[in-house]
Amino acid sequence: MAQVRVTVDGVEYVDDVEPRTLLVYYLRERLGKVGTVVGCDTSNCGACTVHLDGRSVKSCAVLAVQVDGCEVTTIEGLARDGELHPVQKAFHECHALQCGFCTPGMILQAIDLLGDNSDPDEQEVREGIEGNLCRCTGYQNIVRAVQSAAQAMKPGAAARVEAPVTVAGD
Ligand code: FES
Ligand code: FES
Questions:
Q1: pTM of the predicted model as reported, rounded to 2 decimal places
Q2: What is the pLDDT of residues 116-143, one digit of tens each?
């Protein structure tokens, strides 16, 4: 067992984990963050995407022990005071989902993309989300949603979410 101390969605956790435990299973099975889903387990689909210290990663490609001392944001940590994140809102308003399985990872990836490029054109959005697969939508509305969110987040609004830190059990 190895100890990991990590802040997830603004709450600090200290846990003993098997060194081979993948971050996605730590999030889902230990912390109950089931909004982060497993689509392939082989780092292909992007459904498990979370933010690690503000950048998107596929959490099936990261060991839980590797996030010791880090900050993780999942889809469950994006809303603030009952308000959805602008990218979440845009996905809702643009009907950018059908089954919704890809949506958490797609939204986390889109936020990361907008952090690098606050006004992406269609091609830049498509390239920015190319590591996230959707089997339902044909991507058209997803691209629209990302561009719509970009407009909603102007001018210069922070694309990355900084969660207030509290300690579990406090
Ligand atoms: S479950 Fe991680 S990329 Fe598919
Ligand atoms: S909405 Fe079903 S996989 Fe994307």
A1: 0.91
A2: 999 999 999 999 999 999 999 999 999 9
C-alpha 73/C-alpha 140 separation (Å) is: 26
Low-confidence ranges of the chain (pLDDT < 70): 156-170
Report the domain count for the chain: 2
Ligand in closest contact with the CA of 62:
1
**Rounded to the nearest whole angstrom, what is the distance from the C-alpha of residue 157 to the centroid of ligand 2?**
28
| Residues 6 and 73 both lie in one domain | yes
Contact 58 CB / ligand 1 (< 6 Å): yes
Q: What is the pLDDT of residue 11?
A: 98
Residues 38 and 57 both lie in one domain: yes
Angle CA 92–42–136, to nearest 5: 30
Structure tokens that stand for 160 in this block: 């990355």
For ligand 2, the distance from its centroid to the CA atom of residue 76, given in whole angstroms, is 18
- In one-letter notation, the amino acid at residue 136 is C
